[in-house]
Structure of tRNA pseudouridine synthase A:
Amino acid sequence: MTTLRLVLEYDGTDFHGWQSQPSARTVEGVLRSALEQVTGESPRLTAAGRTDAGAHSHGQVVGVRLEHQWEPQPLATALNAVLPADAAVRGAAQAVDTFHARFDATSRTYRYLVMPRRERSPLLRRYAWQVGGELDDAAMRRAAALLRGTHDFAAFGRSPRPGGGTVRTVQHVGVRRIAPLEDPATPVLVIEVSADAFLYGMMRGFAGALVAVGRGRRSVDELAGMLADPSCGRTVTVAPARGLHQWAVTYPAAPPAALASETSA
């Protein structure tokens, strides 16, 4: 038996998310197809997170357990030769037999891209949420600071299990503005969040709430009230999936050198 840890990168625009679905193109589906083509096996896969339809990943970690012995790098090269153009294996390494990509992870980092611009942007339309007009970065940062720590985030997402808990610990939240050198008049705001785990829709809920604050449509105090009382009845506009980027996943042990850059936050 061989247990491997793969790190995937994919453009989620044309995928119906990570998880296999009947009659739908998914990342798990194309990876499984590639594994069957290369190894002749159809192994069980574990993933660090189930990305939404249209969301992207720069560091999705997948656990693969194969019946036969495979060296990590030759297998990664073979998989990349048959994977479609919108998905690739960025790294591969041997893992312990008990490795589980989701349950062994200690934190996940997501980034959400927001583009405050009135004119359409054909180049960024697949990877960022375009909102008309300017955003108040300072107000967004004040609101983001409230999200740090351990809270009941039921107002921003739902548990992946029916009846499951909605308390999560957010280790880091940041809002920063970057301006491409080629076009400094077209800035992009990057919302970055690291947490022990995420609820379904939680990151997109955060992005929607922070943008609402930045546009003056929701106050910082309202956001604080949603954290203090998730049953207050206030709801957030969930940001579209196209701006969501799964960025990195961390594990307790130091990752192998081949994966260090992909798995470090």
Q: What stands out?
A: The radius of gyration is 19 Å. Helices lie at 27-39, 72-82, 137-146, 202-214, 220-228, 260-263. The longest strand covers residues 167-178. The mean pLDDT is 90.
